[in-house]
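JOB MANIFEST
job_type = single_chain_structure
chain_count = 1
residues = 282
[input]
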Amino acid sequence: MTDLTYHQANELFRHFPGFLSIRNSSQEYVYINDKFTVWLRQFTDVNPIGMTASALAKIVPKNLASMLQECHDASIDYIESGQCVPKIVKFQSLHETSYYNVLKFKVDIEGESFIYTTSFDVSELHQEAKFFENKAYTDPLTKLRNLTYLSSIRWNKGFCIVIDLDNFKQINDNRGHSEGDLVLLRFARCLRHSFSEQDVIVRYGGDEFVVLTHYEEEAMLHQALEKLQQVFMEDFKSYPELCHSIGYASFQSSLRITLKKADLAMYQSKHDKRTKKPKALL
């Protein structure tokens, strides 16, 4: 097997299937392949050779500048750590969002280090992965988040609310499971109307729901719960047997502990109703 000639190596670089760029030890571009050149010319006429990504980012459109800066930061991280970790970089054009898988490696030539950056358009794969991730984290009936999602997130502030639909079994038994599904769908809509997009709404079990709020003050929490009560009373007029029990807790040391405390508060509320004690949220 013979060594590559200069011409062969140049052709190999030119026909590389993705974007390819090479920077010297000063982070200046010394080579970009044709595919990357053609893509760049959609956004700028500036020749990047001899420039750093940071310098180039100052004179190109904002969307391109953001991508170049991310790639530059990834190069610095790679130089400092020595670890070659693939990175997904987002690029927003006027018409669509694209994602590129960026990989870096170092080559030492005649005592000088060069950083090679390769990137491939993985937009379709990224969209498919997001689709299946969203499907795995979504309750198929209500389209709320599910228990799997709740177990995967980090949450460390605000209030955790546990809500249980009282007498829901009666609806399933007396009106049928199809009617029960409609009740769950309608209650999911009530929750969406009562809480903000920043809050996480989860179908925790059959007729049990969890809301993780961002509220820092309890007064804001009570406003949301009052709104939920109003929406509930309006939407479920034809279900006189149906009501709900609520318990909540402010964030403790972990989501698991906070959820347990809110769950106990909800069951206490349910117990108080059965024993005809004054109704309380806690």
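[summary]
Residues 268 and 282 are 7 Å apart (CA to CA).
The longest helix spans residues 62-81.
exit_status = 0
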